[in-house]
Amino acid sequence: MQDLSILAELERKVLWLATWTIHHANHLHDNADGLKVGGHQASSASLATIMTALYFHTLRPQDRVAVKPHASPNFHAIQYLLGRQTREKLENFRSYKGAQSYPSRTKDTDDVDFSTGSVGLGVAQTLFSSLAQDYVRAHGWGLERPEGRMIALLGDAELDEGNIFEAMLEGWKQGLRNCWWVVDYNRQSLDAVVREGLWERYQNLFRNFGWDVVLLKYGTLQQAAFAEPGGEVLRRWIDNCPNQLYSALVFQGGAAWRKRLNDEIGDQGQVTALLERRSDEELARLMNNLGGHDLGSIIAAFDAVDHDRPVCFIAYTIKGYGLPFAGHKDNHAGLMTLAQMEMFRKSMNIRPGEEWSRFEGIEHSAAEIQAFLDRVPFASGGNRSLQAGRIAVPDDLPITIQPQTSTQLGFGALLNELGRSDTPLAARIVTASPDVTVSTSLGPWVNRRGLFAREALADTFKSERIPSTFNWEFSPKGQHIELGIAEMNLFCALSALGLSHAINGERLLPIGTLYDPFIARGLDALNYACYQDARFILVATPSGITLAPEGGAHQSIAEPLIGIAQDGLAAFEPAFVDELAVIFAFALDYIQREGGGEASERNWLRDETGGSVYLRLSTRPVEQIKREMTPMLRQAIVDGAYWLRPPGPNCQLVVAYTGAVAPEAIQAVGLMAEDRRDIGLLAITSADRLNAGWTAACRARERGLVHARSHIERLFAGLPRHCGMVTVLDGHPATLAWLGAVNGHRVRPLGVEHFGQTGSIGELYRHYGIDANAIIAAAQMIAPGRPIRYLGAA
Ligand SMILES: Cc1ncc(C[n+]2csc(CCOP(=O)(O)OP(=O)(O)O)c2C)c(N)n1
Ligand SMILES: [Mg+2]
Q1: Between 549 and 412, the higher pLDDT residue
Q2: pLDDT in tens, 111-137
């Protein structure tokens, strides 16, 4: 087949370019730091054949791929050959603004579908992307586009990551389709050679979860040899050969193979002749000819899939295939030496100075190769990065606020109202929860909009007329995705749903709920979702020690700091439901923004670029404030803070609070009013945005923009220098401690540093020192004056 010989040449080019790109970064590019630059020549080589088959033959433009992170150079090489990556980016591989070490949706410019890097997560992303695609199509959107396959290329040791199995179980529950995982079964991890017989465990696991498993073990050369007289003996020897020995022999080469095979099976008649018919070089080629390095076998296996069931291909490969350290157990981070590279260059027929030339060293004519590349189906469809319009969000979301209620109930009420409405906004919302749908107040919304499944499933309790508060009916039109408890899966699902506009060209507004402390369980997946710029709203409730009787392991302390530190995630913690309504409307719009990187001069936040949103809520019923929502108040809530009680000109004390401790802060300020002058009470709705605006304005001033002022600087503008500040929240005190640095005020930050108690809210606030009395005691120390008479009275 003509194409196969061109593909074989392209495979060599991919291997060459990937190897050379890494070599260039390490040996030829400037290296000011003296750090090893790195890159993975062996891991890339391991996938060169498979990726050649996939990208130049199998993929269609609608297919989406998560590439094994350390095979990034292959991906960039392939895009370079297709004319979609520049030489400059390759020359700057791993350098500032160059091609990225691991494929990145946001930093690379050559059409990465899914970022990878933290192993395991890209794999799960493909599974949830397939579910997201099913969700979109079941709702009747994007049907004019062909269905894509979601494909992960993964290392065999990558399967150690538990999140992959969590995802597989969820995929089974949800009727996963159109998902392929290709395991680069080189039997090596980073440190060493992996356990024997893993493929069998994998095979059983995948089959258990409803996947087809295709084993790509022997290449065509091996299959032909097995058909020769004595071939069966050779096959048995290969099957029984321990991984370590196989790797060692691959590394040692033809003579070592011959010696070993002769020692072990050389006296068995016909197989001796089979071995002797081959030179050392031919013998090495035969033994290296595993399924994952045989273009014909790979293509045939990919082409043979004529259904949409999920498929796992276990492709036997050699780590470092075609390179001098092939098979060596230490090769993961190994780099070829200058001398080895020189030999490799010659063997590839590449002239010095022509290392980057696309068609150098290829036997076919450039015109033939170019004509082939022009026909590659994957590259034939133009721009694969899709877009979707923005769904309009009103400033005021309808809600009736109860006089005494919690932010969590407020959230439930907001969604319930949205659920009643027949608007594009309501239609595009998709909620997901890891088995805490009801306990995070999503129940009323789900009652209205139903659960999603590709196949309808009735609620038996309903058909049996057993009274139940919740209507648990599944249908293709449902808008809630009920997940199992694994929080990792929630974040992977949000990551996939939150990229629907780019992957499916259809906007979704994903909202995920979970208990605040369990963010930690899926934190790397959350980080990953943000890293690839997926857009979603995370509603974390309940939170802190305010969930009082639930106790220790359910209490969250560090999450407000995660809210500040997590890039791509704007964190809010409202105290009142009218604040929540404003923030929620903002969030629904913010997650759809895709503007340029310029910071607004008003708050110095990059609001136009948008991002995801984290709402930290509470189940504590709090007396609500009856007030009119003015445009100014609305803006201040979104920017992060407003004066609930403005400080007077002789202000001695500021109390700044966030979230559920609002009643304690209000009470403490009331009790101190006679003993400290002009106290200010600052309501902080987003420590994250206040902090980000402040640091951005500082940087702007340092660049010479002398008038740059952040929201918090404007709020503090009139404060006397000497006033003290007490900050308080149900979370780590460092969250607000930085407020003192804005204008050099003394701060006593109150918060929670330890956990493990059950009790009532009053008992726990006292125990951890965030009640009104603790605020007063702190105020007395930091804002000296006459004794505060109500100290001890609260
Ligand atoms: C979550 C995470 N942990 C650790 C690493 C570091 N790491 C990168 S590759 C690798 C081993 C991968 O082995 P395998 O998946 O078999 O890939 P191969 O290089 O053999 O193809 C490790 C531990 C990582 N990237 N992500
Ligand atoms: Mg491996």
Answers
A1: 412
A2: 999 999 999 999 999 999 999 999 999
In this structure, are residues 432 and 483 in contact, taking their beta carbons and an 8 Å threshold?
Answer: yes
Confidence of residue 553 (pLDDT cuts 50, 70, 90): confident
pLDDT, mean of residues 24-48: 93
Asked if 750 contacts 733 with a C-beta cutoff of 8 angstroms, the reply is: yes
From the list 689, 688, 696, the residue with the least C-alpha distance to 604 is: 696
Band of residue 599 on the pLDDT scale cut at 50, 70, 90: low
- Whether ligand 1 lies within 6 angstroms of the CB of 157 is answered as yes
Beta-strand (E) ranges in 641-723?
641-645, 653-658, 680-684
Q: What does pTM read for this prediction?
A: 0.97
Is residue 118 within 6 Å of ligand 1 at its C-beta?
A: yes
Which pair of structure tokens corresponds to residue 369?
A: 């190769």
Q: Among the bound ligands, name the one nearest to the CA of residue 121.
A: 1
Mean pLDDT of 774-781: 97
* Helices 162-174 & 198-208 angle (0-180, nearest 10): 30
In the predicted model, what is the mean pLDDT of the chain? 95
The pocket of ion ligand 2, defined by CB under 5 A, consists of 155-157, 186, 188
User: How far are the Cα atoms of 123, 253, 525 from residue 189, in angstroms, in the given order?
Assistant: 17, 21, 22
**Using alpha carbons only, what angle is made at residue 86 by residues 81 and 88, rounded to the nearest 5 degrees?**
130
CA distances from 569 to 78, 523, 526, 560, 572 (A): 33, 12, 9, 12, 10
Task: Among 190, 317, 329, say which to mutate for ligand 1: greatest number of ligand atoms within 8 Å of CB.
Answer: 190
> Does any ligand 1 atom lie closer than 6 A to the CB of residue 336?
no
**Which residue has tokens 């065509």?**
220
- Indicate if the pLDDT at residue 366 is higher than 90: yes
Band the pLDDT of 647: cuts 50, 70, 90.
Answer: very high
- 3 state SS of 266: coil
Phi, psi of 407, rounded to the nearest 5 degrees: -65, -35
State how far the Cα of 753 lies from the Cα of 731, in Å rounded to an integer. Answer: 8
Of 332, 333, 355, 358, residue with least CA distance to 342 = 355
**Residue 118 is which amino acid?**
S
**HSE (CB half, 13 Å, CA atoms) of 547?**
25
**Which ligand sits closest to the CA of 123?**
1
